[in-house]
Every structure is written in C-alpha cells, then in structure tokens.
From TrEMBL:
CDD domains, alphabetized: AAT_like
One Pfam family, short name: Aminotran_1_2
Source organism of this protein record: Fretibacterium fastidiosum
UniProt cross-references to Gene3D superfamilies, sorted A to Z: Aspartate Aminotransferase, domain 1, Type I PLP-dependent aspartate aminotransferase-like (Major domain)
Keyword Signal: no
Gene: hisC
UniProt protein name: Histidinol-phosphate aminotransferase
Enzyme class: transferase
InterPro entries (UniProt xref): Aminotrans_II_pyridoxalP_BS, Aminotransferase_I/II_large, HisP_aminotrans, HistidinolP_aminotransfase, PyrdxlP-dep_Trfase, PyrdxlP-dep_Trfase_major, PyrdxlP-dep_Trfase_small
C-alpha cells in the first residue's frame, strides 16, 4: 500500500473470485462457470464485430437491449445493459444507497455485496440465515434499507418462494429491492413478472452462467423506467461505453440461439441430480440447490482439508472461511463426465481416510 492511498479505502477487503490457476490443468469446479462453450452463433457474431473495432461501440447497446426486452417481455426503457451484473450491482449501491438509505443483505451470500457497500461508504446490515441456510422473509420486511437478495442464493443454491419475495418488495415501498438472479436459469422461478406491479423492484441477470459468456463480462437489469434512468445517469458518468463491440455482439448472438442455452441448462440440471445422488451415497450432506453448484460437507472430513486434498488431486472447488461455511465446499456442476471424475476422486479420498 502506497502512502498516497486514500484513507477511506485502507480497510477495504477486496472481493476474492474463484481461483484461475496457471500452474497445471485442473478440473475447475470452483467458479460456477459453464462447462459448455458459447453458442456457435455468439462466436460468429463476435468474430464479425471484431472487424469494426476501429469504431466506438453503441453506448446504449440498442440492439442488445431490444432483444433482452423481447425475451423478458418488457419495454426497452425497462432494461439496462452493463459490463456484468457485478457492474450493475455497483451502480445500484451508488444510485440507491447512502447514509440515509443504508443497505441490508444476508450474512451468508455473494461476498461482493459487502465489498461494494464498503467501497461506496454505505452503512449495511448483514442478516443471519436460518440454521438450514434459508432466508426468513420476515427479517427483511419494513427495514427501511435498500435490500440485496440473491435468488437462488450463493453459495447455498437455495431459492426463496416468489410469494416471500413479493412480500418483501411490498413491505419495502420506500426503498429499492434488488434481486440478483445470476443463477435463475438452472431451476428457480424468476420474479421478473413482478416489476410491473412494484416500482421499487430491480432484477439483475448475468450472461456468465447459463449463457456461457463468463469471459465476456456482460449483464443486465430490468426494472421500472425511472430506476433504469437513475442507473443510466450514474453509468454514463463513469464510463459511457462500458461494453465493447465484440462483447455486445457475443451477447446478441447468444440471445439469438435460446435453444442452445436451454438445452445446456437442462444438461446441467441432469448433472446436478447425478452429482447430488452420488455425493449423498458417499455420505455428504447437501443443500437442495437449484443453481449450477452444490454446497456439500462430509461428517468425517474437515471442509478445508477436503478442499486441499481435492486440489492435490487436480480438482478445484471453492472453500469459504466464513464460520457458518467452514465445513462446506461449493462444487460447480459441470458436465456429466466432470461429475463422474469428481465422484471418483472423492471416493479415493474417503477411502484413504478410513
């Protein structure tokens, strides 16, 4: 840290993403990436756009915004596209939070929320989960805070019932409720239909998971036009052209091939069932995940020790230091072959510990 570093950031603990190793080839099950390549149409569109990199991109992402609006059954003015859902979440903290509008989110959830709150100097409250890792809706009602809720939640993979989410939005009329639907494509129900009933609801999505575009950094949000305009004012003050031509084209190509993504999500759900059944047979306890990952622990093996043993054997999973998660590891659901390899390695490890 240099002597020039601003005092307001000296206590900031940056977000730590899933490891991207370079020292050897691993079975990567630690970052919730798709095991499938992007749609061929996404690659085709991106390749064509690369010939126009001498020109600035459309700052309004008009074509992509229009296509998203069509798929979500909303108006284009109810959509904002940005460089990943993380960028949109940061815009939401900037636009809708301050000392008069503090934030609240689950204590066990995406670690980015806390980082963004601290980065933007926003007071925040972390609400503990129930013992079974579920979110109790009543804890979030009438708090007088801007709310951030991942549904399904990360790293538990659990989803809240839509009536519970609607109750939270309805009981928070004077604050924005941000529902982060990064993992909704793998089996959860979206709350997008609620945006026309509630002007304080903002739903965020990413192209990183179900659309196989984690390397492109692309996301969007849907909400009341006034909320979208608020976010746009902040975004355009920071970075007018936040998405390059190639990424924009890749997103449009992916959205023109919905069948490809739908089929991949189906395959992930099948792999999830296979992996969950296999882990249960090995004695693991799991949450009832509807995301593209599983949260698992074994009664005989310490969580961090298992993470390290898997790493030694060429399998990367995600371990968290949070006390509530210390005995768990989050395992990305890959292809069926990936899950077969995981179970084989786990069987070896558990056999060594007997």
């Amino acid at each position: 840290m240099s002597r020039f570093f601003s005092a307001k950031y000296k206590s900031l603990m940056p977000y730590v993403p899933g490891e991207q190793p370079r020292d050897r080839k691993y079975l990567k099950l630690n970052a919730n990436e798709s095991p499938f390549p992007p749609s061929p149409r996404a690659v085709e569109y991106a390749s064509e756009a690369s010939n126009l990199l001498n020109l600035y991109p459309d700052p309004d992402c008009t074509g992509l915004t229009t296509r998203i609006a069509e798929l979500c059954d909303v108006a284009p003015e109810e959509v904002l596209v940005a460089g990943g859902s993380a960028a949109i979440l940061n815009l939401a903290f900037m636009a809708f939070c301050d000392r008069y509008h503090p934030a609240a989110f689950p204590e066990v959830t995406c670690g980015l929320y806390r980082v963004l709150a601290e980065l933007n100097g926003v007071p925040f409250k972390e609400i503990p989960l129930e013992e079974d890792f579920t979110i109790r809706a009543e804890e979030y009602m009438a708090l007088g805070r801007t709310l951030f809720i991942a549904n399904p939640n990360d790293p538990t993979g659990l989803a809240m019932p839509i009536p519970d989410l609607e109750g939270i939005v309805r009981r928070t009329p004077d604050n924005v409720v941000v529902i982060d639907e990064a993992y909704v494509g793998f089996g959860a129900t979206s709350c997008l239909p609620l945006i026309h009933r509630y002007g304080n609801l903002l739903v965020t999505r990413t192209f990183s998971k179900s659309w196989s575009l984690a390397g492109a950094r692309l996301g969007f949000c849907v909400g009341n036009p006034d909320l979208i305009e608020d976010l746009r004012r902040v975004k355009d003050s920071i970075n007018l052209c936040s998405i390059d031509r190639v990424t924009m084209a890749a997103g449009l190509g992916a959205l023109s091939d919905v069948e490809y993504t739908t089929n991949n999500c189906r395959l992930i759900r099948e792999s999830r069932r296979f992996a969950a059944d296999g882990l249960a047979l090995l004695g693991f306890d799991l949450t009832d995940s509807v995301a593209n990952f599983l949260l698992a622990r074994h009664p005989r093996v310490d969580g961090r020790a298992l993470y390290l043993k898997l790493r030694e054997k060429g399998v990367l999973v995600r371990h968290f230091d949070h006390p509530a998660l210390a005995q768990y590891n989050r395992i990305t659901v890959g292809s069926l072959e990936d899950m077969q390899q995981l179970l084989k390695v786990l069987k070896e490890i558990l056999g060594e510990d007997e």
